[in-house]
Amino acid sequence: MIPAMRSLKLEERDRATSIFNDIIMRFEHSQTPEAECGYKPITLIALMEKEVSEKDEFLRLFFSFIGQNPSTEGGEWETDVEHMLSRLASFDSWTTEEIDALRESLAAFAKYLVDNSLLPRRSPELMQDARPLLCSVKAFAAHTPQPTPAPLSPSILSDAAISTPQRVSILRRDCLARDRHRCVITRKFDAEEAGTRWKREKHNMKDDDGQLFSERDTFAFVEVAHIIPHFMPLSNEGGERKLASGHTIASTDAWLTMFQVESKQVAHRILNMFNPTAVNLINGPNIDRPRNALTPTHGLHRQFGEFDIAFEPIGPEPHTYKIDHVDPDDFVSVEKLLITVTLYLTPDRTIDPPSPELLEIHRAIGRILHVSAVGDYIEGFLRDMEEMEGGGVIPNGSSRLDDFVRFRLTVTGWLEGRSPAL
User: Fold this and answer.
1) Domain named HNH nuclease: which ranges (predicted)?
2) Parallel, antiparallel, or unpaired for β 189-190 and 219-220?
3) How do the residues of the chain divide into helix, strand and coil, expressed in percent and rounded to 5?
């Protein structure tokens, strides 16, 4: 079981930080080559520690994982931080075998982070195909569904009665109204809404600020994009897991339930390390609320959803951001970036603005995915899983059956009423 998270004592924090930095410095330059494991494991660990706000929790998780007892089945979590730190304080004088074991533990911890916080989770309600799509956090976030904006007030129906497509339809309507039917980055007006107004008003059509459009104005199709996508496992209030086929796995199925619940707990815990209020902001139906969404054009939606674009807060004015590529040397862009924008607010604040906290998590994830090469690794991993899903052999001829089973259990959910083609 995963140990409960508690704040470190001041002396523990200082010592843990020092030992952590020493370990990173010792192993990062000699980490497993990217070509071998697909990403930079030590760089990933270092970036996670740098980007999270709850560093005590991350350090405790790190040292607890490294302190697992490999001789025990499943590994027992070491919970005595002082004992773990005492063991690791002298790692520079360890034998070659002990150093290699520590290096393997670091690689295992990096994979643990990838499996539990960066690989995607899909909501069954968003499955738009009979066969589950295997897509990464990046790819899934780039494709928030775009249903017609809902005409109904969300107060008419309870959250429990609103399916995810209905919530996203309401979300699109509210975000377009809040953002004045404009892309939050380019300020281009939504072409669909412009067409509707043209049919009604012709040359007298105006924007949301009451200004007449001119012949020089250009339009674009504006979409709604989730800041944090639907990549976490969802459970209903009864503690049962609903899968893509509509089947339900009762909580009495102890092995599978424990496997899925623990994965969800770890994902929540790691998300909490970025911001302790984050889970509540996007838990359940909250993920489809305006504070977790904004309105880009189609091309920018894809780049934002792939964590290639980040919003960085600047200056004293609220909701003002510098918008740029996560990789400043990125040559490919659908729009010229490195711009500063102040997001629109509704006059009476009846519709929440995009959450600064969630935008910061999005920025941090983008940096982690890019600098550690985990983003590219996930894309390759999921291409392999898709090959296996279709019954094919992955390009290098190997069989990643263990990865496939774990992925299907924790990500898309198994038991769809048919066996996958293996």
Assistant:
1) 183-312
2) parallel
3) 50, 10, 40
Give the 3-state secondary structure of residue 122.
coil
- Beta bridge partners, 294, equal 225
> CA quadruple 242, 284, 264, 230: dihedral positive or negative?
positive
Question: Residue 175 corresponds to which tokens in the numbers above?
Answer: 């975000």
- What residues contact residue 376 under an 8 Å CB cut-off, 6+ apart? 38, 39
Length of the chain counted residue by residue: 422
d(CA 422, CA 84): 43
| Residues in CB range of 186: below 8 A, 6 or more apart | 220, 297, 300, 335
328 to 271, 338, 370: CA distances (angstroms): 26, 9, 11
What are the phi and psi torsion angles at 148 (to 5°)? Answer: -60, 135
Distance CA 341, CA 343 (A): 6
Q: Is the overall model pTM greater than 0.85, yes or no?
A: no
Torsion of CA 107, 111, 113, 114, to 10 degrees: 140
Structure tokens at 109: 């911890």
Interatomic CA distance for residues 352 and 111, integer angstroms: 36
Between CA 149 and CA 151 the distance in angstroms is 7
Q: Are 411 and 120 in contact (CB under 8 A)?
A: yes
In the predicted model, is pLDDT for residue 87 greater than 70?
Answer: yes
- Give the integer Cα–Cα distance in Å for 233 and 116: 11
Contact 334, 299 (CB under 8 A): yes
Q: Which residues contact 47 (CB under 8 A, 6 or more apart)?
A: 367, 368, 371, 372
Per-residue pLDDT reduced to its tens digit, 313-330: 998 889 999 999 888 776
